[in-house]
Structures are given as structure tokens and as C-alpha cells.
Design a protein that fits this description.
13 helices; alpha/beta
């Protein structure tokens, strides 16, 4: 049976509004960092000179998790520069559900939009990876991304004993870290070229904090280990092949603070030479809202029912593309449903320790 490969171009958040409705934690990350972003905006020179001001949200998904922050930033720019037209650009990969994004922006969903509140505002989308150039040089004023830049531009071989690089060892892990370093430098170099002098970037990234914690691994039961264990159980049960297990790997790299900041501090690095400077860095853990709610209501079945969709919203495409393309689509869907049902049953049976706490490294950068 031939097998497919998970690559960066195959990754997409679940569409139709599913992503925003199921990822309250991702919105908490962004909303909680709004004061940090406003401080970065306050440090910028934004003259009221009638020229175009451009902001970008890179890796936007359906736009619902960032809509509050984007609206706040754009309203502050409008307050400081009444005469300047504002261009807001959303970017993600071609498979992203941009139709849902624009439905939300134009008030056709149950999420409140900022669009009608800001005059002389123009909203666009670009289906271009943040690993590539997006804007003409010197035309971007403020760049933002959250919970996105851990995706690398390509899958590197296999991870023989796991589904994520955090569980990889030796040369397999080193390959992901090397690709992550390369992609991070390329992303930052592109943004440095695109920024106007004095422009800012707010980059909120999944990472590994000073205590070795990362998404879904903050002292309880490891989420990625659980993914790997249940996927391996499907091999033992004959539902998937060993080859499909090996081919199921998240094209992601979780970086440490030192790995994130290295190109911004080294005068010999192309990022530093392009003029990008680190202004602020910190790590934060944002608690899983579903585990927090479970602490209040105490119903394991309800917790499992509410918790699994947030995992599924961003991970399903990786497991789906790990399955052989020779399997009928309906068969692949049944396997995926069986996988998440098994995870839900595991949480409902023994909920203690399950949580997808968000571990982020927050960076503010400026163009010298």
C-alpha cells in the first residue's frame, strides 16, 4: 500500500468556523498579549501624513482568534493617524478557509467584526507562506503572528518512534531543529526586508520554555505522547499500518528561547544584518480553558467532549495525510473518527492530568 507524506502544504486548520469555535485557548493567548502589542505600537512613529499603513496577520486561519487584537491595533492606528488609509492583510496557506475569514470580517458570522468601525480600511488576503516573501520591500509597518511559526517548510524524513519532534531523538530530532533554525532565519529575513524603518513585529510562538515545558506538556499527561500512543494502538489493532504510523509526523519545530533569539543577537547573522533587532522576549503559560472549566464543573465526560475538538481543530490534517491515499476517503475518515473517539474515551475515563496548556515565547522586534 503506497503512502502519502505530510508536508507543510498539506496542513490546514479545520474550516467552516470550526477552528475559532474550538480554540478558545489560542484566543486567550492573543487577547492576553494585547497590552504588549499596544506598547509596541506606542513605540512606533506613525505620522499623520496620508500615506498607506499596512498590517499583516501571518498564519491567520479563519481570523477569529485574532480579530479582537487586530481591531484594537487598527483603531489605535486610526486614532493616531486619521488621514492614513489602512491596509489589513491576512495570510495563510492556499488550503486555508479564506471564505470563512471574509464572512467574519464582513459581519456574516456570530463573531463581532471591526470592519465597519474603522473608516478608510481595506482588507485583503494572501495565500503565501510566511516562509516566503509576502510584501514589496519597505512597505510593511506592523507584522503579527501567533501560534503559527512552529510549522516548518517541509517534512524531514521520518520520526520512527513518535509523531512529533518533541518525542524524537538523535539525528531525527537534530534534523527538525536544523530545518527549524533555517526556516526561522528565512522568515525573519523576509520580514526585515519588508518592514519600513521603525516597523515592528509581534511574534507569539509555540516553544519550549526554560523548564522544558511545551504545548500540552506542562506537568500532567503529555498530549503529543498520547497522540503517539493511540496512533500506535491503531497499528496493533490492524486499523493502520506501521508504515502509516511512521509517515504521520507534524511538520513542526518547537524552539527554545535561545534558538528564537540567536539570529536577532548575532551581528554575523543575516537577520541581524538585515536590521531586525530584539526589543522584548518572555515566556508565558496560558492554562487550557477546558481543563480549567473541568475544575469547576467536575464532569469527566463533559470535559472530554469539550476538550477533544480543540486538539482536532489543528491536528486532524496531519493524521489524515499520514494515511495512505489508496484508502477510500470514507475509510480514512472512519479511522480519524476512531482515533479521536479513543482519545475522548481515555480522557473521560481518567481526566486528571489532561490539559492543552499553551506555552509561548513572545517576541517584539523592530527594524533598525
Amino acid at each position: 500500500m503506497s503512502r502519502t507524506k505530510t508536508t507543510a502544504r498539506d496542513i490546514a486548520m479545520k474550516g467552516g468556523g470550526y477552528y475559532s469555535s474550538a480554540t478558545a485557548g489560542a484566543k486567550d493567548v492573543i487577547d492576553g498579549a494585547t497590552p504588549m502589542v499596544l506598547e509596541a505600537i506606542a513605540a512606533m512613529d506613525i505620522p499623520d501624513d496620508g500615506s498607506l499603513f499596512t498590517m499583516v496577520d501571518m498564519g491567520c486561519a479563519d481570523g477569529g482568534t485574532s480579530i479582537g487584537l487586530v481591531g484594537t491595533v487598527l483603531k489605535e492606528v486610526r486614532r493616531r493617524a486619521p488621514s492614513r488609509p489602512i491596509q489589513m492583510v491576512y495570510t495563510d496557506l492556499p488550503r486555508n478557509d479564506f471564505s470563512q475569514l471574509f464572512r467574519m470580517i464582513h459581519g456574516q458570522t456570530d463573531i463581532a467584526s471591526y470592519f465597519e468601525d474603522i473608516p478608510d480600511l481595506y482588507v485583503f488576503a494572501s495565500a503565501t507562506s510566511f516562509h516566503k516573501a509576502i510584501f514589496a520591500p519597505g512597505t510593511l509597518h506592523f507584522g503579527f503572528t501567533a501560534t503559527a511559526s512552529h510549522y516548518i517548510s517541509q517534512k524531514l524524513g521520518v520520526i520512527s518512534n513518535h509523531v512529533h519532534m518533541v518525542g524524537a531523538q538523535g539525528a531525527e530530532r537534530a534534523a527538525y531543529e536544523a530545518q527549524g533554525r533555517k526556516d526561522w532565519e528565512v522568515m525573519l529575513t523576509n520580514r526585515a526586508r519588508e518592514l519600513v524603518p521603525g516597523g515592528r513585529l509581534a511574534l507569539f510562538n509555540f516553544g519550549i520554555d526554560e523548564d522544558g515545558r511545551y504545548l500540552g506538556n506542562t506537568g500532567g499527561i503529555s498530549m503529543f505522547d498520547t497522540f503517539s500512543e493511540i496512533w500506535a494502538e491503531l497499528v496493533d489493532q490492524g486499523a493502520i499500518t506501521q508504515g502509516e504510523y511512521v509517515d504521520t509526523n507534524f511538520p513542526q519545530c518547537y524552539r527554545t528561547v535561545a534558538q528564537f533569539t540567536a539570529p536577532l543577537k548575532d551581528p554575523g547573522n543575516p537577520v541581524y544584518q538585515a536590521g531586525l533587532r530584539l526589543e522584548h522576549v518572555e515566556t508565558r503559560i496560558v492554562p487550557c480553558p477546558y481543563a480549567k472549566a473541568f475544575g469547576d464543573h467536575g464532569d469527566p465526560a463533559r470535559f472530554a467532549r469539550e476538550y477533544i475538538p480543540t486538539l482536532r481543530s489543528w491536528s486532524e490534517s496531519t493524521f489524515m495525510t499520514g494515511l495512505s491515499a489508496e484508502r477510500p476517503l470514507e475509510e480514512r475518515r472512519e479511522i480519524i473518527a476512531r482515533f479521536y473517539d479513543a482519545y475522548q474515551e481515555r480522557v473521560a475515563r481518567a481526566p486528571e492530568g489532561h490539559a492543552m496548556d499553551y506555552v509561548h515565547i513572545y517576541l517584539i522586534c523592530s527594524k533598525a
